[in-house]
Amino acid sequence: MNITLRQLKVFESVARHLSFTRAAEELYLTQPAVSMQIKQLEQQVGLPLFEQIGKRIFLTEAGGEVRRYAQRIAAELRELSDGLEALRGLNSGRLRLTVASTANYFATDLLATFTRRQPGITFQLEVTNREGLLRRIQDNEMDLAIMGEPPEGLDVAAETFMPNPLVVIAAPEHPLATGAQIPLERLQDELFVLREAGSGTRNTVERFLEQRGLRLHGGLEMSSNEAIKQSVQAGLGLGVVSIHTVALELELGRLCVLNVEGFPLERHWYLVHRSGKRLSPAAEAFRRFVVEEAHAHWHCAPTTQTTPPDFGPAGERSQGPTAGRQPPATASVQSPERPAALAASSELTATKRAAGLATTTT
After folding, report:
1. What backbone phi and psi angles, to 5 degrees, belong to 126?
2. Cβ pair 280, 77 in contact under 8 A
3. Cystine design at 225: which of 35, 87, 171, 245 (Cβ 3.0–4.6 Å)?
């Protein structure tokens, strides 16, 4: 067989998207050019790689086999590239970073600071939901992921680097926005705007409540934090979000954090990659940068954890930077001076105050 790397690259893109059109957009090719590459590859293989049923295409058995080898070859080529980059040092290189949609509120600040220190490194940033993250990790299609809860059932290395408290938010005029502590059971009487089923935030909240025999009354289901915030502002219900997502709304008085028993729920942000994966020099430099910044500004020693937190009785959580602290019940947030890197933006700095976390300034 005389198979080219270009044919395998085009095939892998079509197989991943199950779409000639989306593969063409990703590779900046015309759709006829993509179809031609696939046709030539099928001629070399001697078997059809795709079959069309209605308007959808599917991999054949031969297509699945070719895809496995195409991914393996692509991984070997990346390792070759990484090895050559290591010989050249950090004057060049490419970082492929995939982050949870919630983490995007601070990930761009991290990347901005990192690229100022390492201007020769370019990066590809993908923002997606938990399902997309798990797919990228499973297919080894990124160097590092930033997410809120390491996946179960996947062989991954996960390293904590920053607190990620979950808080209950409401419109300022909501009857519960009085400042008094709210019993956890009281939440069952309220309508909630929730993330989609399977999201890390929703999983954590539901597990926390189920351990206490409680359930939330979900009235609306949203696929983004922005949609949740807008819905809560409009008075459609309460929400549970990461404190990192609401700094601006708290400062402007558009939302408030309710003083609910047992909240904030302590979570952490994790750097995740496949176990045994050899990180490129660029990825290793970024991993080291994030961990060092976290230790300097949040006093968080890096730890590995691959199981979700086990919440104890209401108000009792594992010890950490946010353990036992309650967020303020008002939306008034004072922004201190801006620390570097992880707390580079005023929005992120404000979130630390809102969560009752210690702030390090420079």
Report:
1. -120, 125
2. no
3. 245
Give domain 166-267+311-354's CATH superfamily.
Periplasmic binding protein-like II (3.40.190.10)
Q: Are 48 and 42 contacting, i.e. CB atoms less than 8 angstroms apart?
A: yes
The domain at 82-163+268-298 falls in which architecture? 3-Layer(aba) Sandwich (3.40)
Q: Decide if pLDDT at 42 tops 80.
A: yes
Mean pLDDT, rounded, for 186-212:
88
Q: What percent of the chain is modeled with pLDDT above 70? A: 79
Distance CA(160)–CA(175), nearest Å, equals 37
pLDDT value at residue 12: 94
> pLDDT, tens digit, for every residue of 217-234?
777 888 888 999 999 999
